[in-house]
Amino acid sequence: MRCAQGVDNTFATLTRHDSRHTGASLAASAEANIKALQRMLGHASASMTLDTYADLFDEDLDSVAERLNHRRTLEIIGFYRGLPQKYPPWTLERSR
Fold first, then answer.
1. Which of 17, 36, 38, 77 could pair with 49 in a Cys bridge, judged by C-beta atoms 3.0 to 4.6 Å apart?
2. pLDDT tens readout for residues 33-70
3. What does the pLDDT read at residue 79?
4. Is the sign of the CA dihedral 78, 80, 82, 84 positive or negative?
5. Residue 17's closest CA among 52, 51, 45?
6. What is the CA radius of gyration of the chain?
7. b vs e for 11-20, b when ≥16 Cβ sit within 10 Å of the residue's Cβ?
8. CA pair distance 14, 91, nearest whole angstrom
9. Cα 25 to Cα 36: distance, rounded to the nearest angstrom
10. What is d(CA 88, CA 68) in angstroms, rounded to the nearest whole number?
11. pLDDT per residue over 71-89, tens digit each?
12. Is 82 left (phi over 0), alpha (psi -120 to 50) or beta?
C-alpha cells in the first residue's frame, strides 16, 4: 500500500478493519453460512456476527425468497409427475 501511495498520493489508506470487513462482505455475498462466517471472523457467537454484519444480508432476502419459491415449484412438479421426493408439497405450505 505504501508503494502504491508513493506512486499515487490519492490511493486510499486501508486499515486491517477495512480488510476484515471486505472479507466478511465477500463471504456473505458468496452465500457463506453464518456459522462459517462466525468462525472465519473469530466471533464468540453467530449472533455477534449477525449484529455486526447484518447490513450485508439485507440484499439476500429477495434471492432467498426466489430460491425457496423455485424449490417449492420443483417439489410440486415432481409430486405430480410421480417422482420420488424428499418433501411432499403439502409439508411446504403454511399451516392455517
1. 38
2. 889 999 999 999 999 988 888 777 766 677 777 888 88
3. 65
4. positive
5. 52
6. 21
7. eeeeeeeeee
8. 49
9. 13
10. 14
11. 888 877 776 666 665 655 5
12. left
**CA–CA separation, 73 and 79 (whole Å):** 10
In this structure, are residues 75 and 87 in contact, taking their beta carbons and an 8 Å threshold? yes
Which runs of E-coded beta strand occur in the chain? none
Cell of 68: 425457496
Place of cell 419459491: 69
Grid cell digits, residue 7: 506512486
The residue assigned the cell 473469530 is 42
Residue 21: phi, psi to the nearest 5?
-65, -35
**Which grid cell is 27?**
463471504
39 and 23 in contact (C-beta within 8 Å)? no
